[in-house]
Design brief:
The protein is α/β, with parallel strands linked by helices. The protein has helices at residues 18-34, 41-55, 61-74, 78-91, 94-105, 118-122, 145-156, 171-183, 185-188, 201-210, 220-227, 258-270, 293-310, 318-337, 395-401, 421-431; strands spanning 125-130, 134-138, 160-165, 191-195, 213-217, 235-239, 243-248, 280-286, 357-361, 369-373, 386-392, 409-414, 436-438, 462-467. It folds into 2 domains: 7-241, Aldehyde Dehydrogenase, Chain A, domain 1 (3-Layer(aba) Sandwich); 243-342 and 350-438, Aldehyde Dehydrogenase, Chain A, domain 2 (3-Layer(aba) Sandwich). Helix 16 (421-431) links the parallel strand 12 and strand 13. The chain is globular.
């Protein structure tokens, strides 16, 4: 049982007011000045890495509580929740923490003191970076991990932090903050967390008036509304709606590697049950490989069935299950009335080739669904292990038909492509993709991942240049 350290610990019986928000902000800002602002960055890195290592211990109390209460809080099955938790904390190492600072700022010491890079030294200059005095976060409820990452980045910048947690999915960030406070109570006094219904404007605006920097994750419309209500002096870092997909070249469809490719695809389809901007909605695959699209779909179905046996998707809310059933029925109707490749009447004249569609699905349940659709247009999935397969001639064709989501793509997973890997990656980058990763690792970004193509720490800090 965790102590009542944060406002969020007090439960729904606490009636929040704007004054409570303002008082909490004053308190954590004062505590930050007394302790956190004076810490060496290396000390904070060691504390974060040590805490993450504790979370990987099966006997850790915070981990045990998260595994007990997290699935009900997030709506995710225990095995899927546990896999996502381990993936995040395995990435929170000293090397990765130092790496994100070095990537964005050039030197870990930049957050502690004036230092000079080789170029700055030749010019007689030095510089240092400062984090926000008070960093606010409006956290989304689809996945708990982004809130953890936001909290970590804020600690590295030595900022007091106020996290507005979602009503669903806030247990893991809260437990992580408690574990940090257990290891260093003074750090815990620089963090505040609270929960209130979205759109409670008087509470939000009390927070907006106090912060010096605000990050927010949510729908584009919600973020635009927030942006109109924050003071002009507040830096705003927004993370809006994103979708992702995969691309499987012929090199990944040979007899030697096709099953591995299918297993990697299943890892992405089942991670967090596709509830995240980095989860695939569809997989484009080149249709002139050793294994045909139909053959790959058969293999993928077997792998999804095997995954279900060891890591069940779990029950869904009624509306989610109905969405899958409705989409399946629609696809089945299309499959029944649209000719397949072998059924086309070759003596007919078509302005556009008829499309074919096939469906693979778990028997008697909505646990997993594969739709093989030769219409290459990007389709958003209804999630929860529902994936589209889209055969295409080449990557250019896939990108042409994905143009509707251009600029909104969180990541593209690229299966092994041999000598063509760099060529395909360059084409994806020029199209505007900001993260290209191996298939099977879509939900495993590095902490230093440039979210939406932006530097994770660089967007938070303010620089001071010292000239001699």
């Amino acid at each position: 049982m965790t102590p009542n350290l944060f406002l969020a610990d007090l439960g729904p019986e606490l009636e929040l007011t704007p004054q409570i928000i303002r008082d909490a902000c004053f308190s954590i800002r004062r505590n930050r000045e007394k302790w956190l602002a004076r810490r060496r960055t290396r000390e904070l890195i060691d504390l974060l890495a040590f805490t993450a290592e504790q979370w990987l211990d099966p006997l850790n109390g915070y981990r045990s509580q998260a595994l007990r209460d997290g699935p009900a809080d997030t709506g995710l099955p225990a095995a899927t929740f546990s896999r996502g938790l381990d993936t995040f904390f395995r990435s929170l190492t000293s090397e990765q923490l130092e790496g994100v600072i070095t990537q964005d700022l050039g030197d870990v010491r930049k957050l502690d003191e004036f230092t000079s890079s080789p170029i700055e030294s030749r010019q007689g200059r030095a510089s240092m970076a400062r984090g926000p005095e008070l960093l606010g976060h409006i956290c989304a409820g689809n996945l708990p991990v982004p809130a953890l990452a936001s909290l970590v980045l804020g600690i590295l910048t030595k900022s007091a932090q106020f996290l507005k947690l979602p009503r669903r999915g806030g247990i893991l960030p809260r437990l992580f903050a408690h574990s940090l406070a257990f290891n260093e109570s003074k750090l815990g006094s620089c963090i505040e967390m609270a929960t209130w219904p979205g759109g409670t404007r008087e509470l939000e605006e009390a927070l907006f008036q106090e912060v010096t920097c605000l990050t927010a994750t949510g729908s584009d419309s919600a973020l635009t509304d927030i942006q109109t209500r924050i003071p002009a002096s507040v830096r705003f870092v927004r993370y809006g709606h994103r979708v992702s997909f995969g691309y499987i070249p012929v090199e990944a469809l040979t007899a030697y590697v096709v099953k591995r490719t299918a297993r990697e695809a299943v890892a992405d389809i089942t991670a967090w049950n596709q509830h995240g901007c980095l989860s695939p909605h569809c997989l484009y695959l080149e249709d002139n490989g050793v294994h045909s699209p139909e053959s790959f779909a058969e293999i993928l179905a077997e792998e999804l069935k095997a995954k279900e046996a060891v890591e069940p998707r779990g029950p869904l809310a009624i509306e989610e299950a109905n969405a899958i059933s409705s989409r399946r029925e629609l696809c089945a109707m299309r499959a029944a009335v649209i000719p397949g490749p072998r059924e086309r009447k070759l003596d007919s004249v078509f302005l556009e080739a008829p499309q074919s569609l096939r469906l693979w699905r778990s028997a008697g349940t909505t646990d997993w669904t594969i739709v093989l659709d030769t219409d290459p247009s990007f389709n958003p999935s209804c999630l929860n292990r529902f994936i589209y397969l889209k055969p295409v001639k080449n990557l250019s064709t896939a990108l042409h038909f994905a143009d509707r989501v251009r600029g909104q793509v969180g990541a593209v997973a690229l299966a092994q492509a041999g000598e063509r890997h760099s060529e395909l990656a360059l084409e994806l980058a020029q199209w505007g993709v900001t993260r290209i990763c191996p298939l099977g690792r879509m939900q495993e970004p590095w902490l230093s991942w440039r979210h939406d193509g932006r530097p994770p720490l660089g967007d938070l800090v303010t620089w001071t240049d010292l000239e001699s």
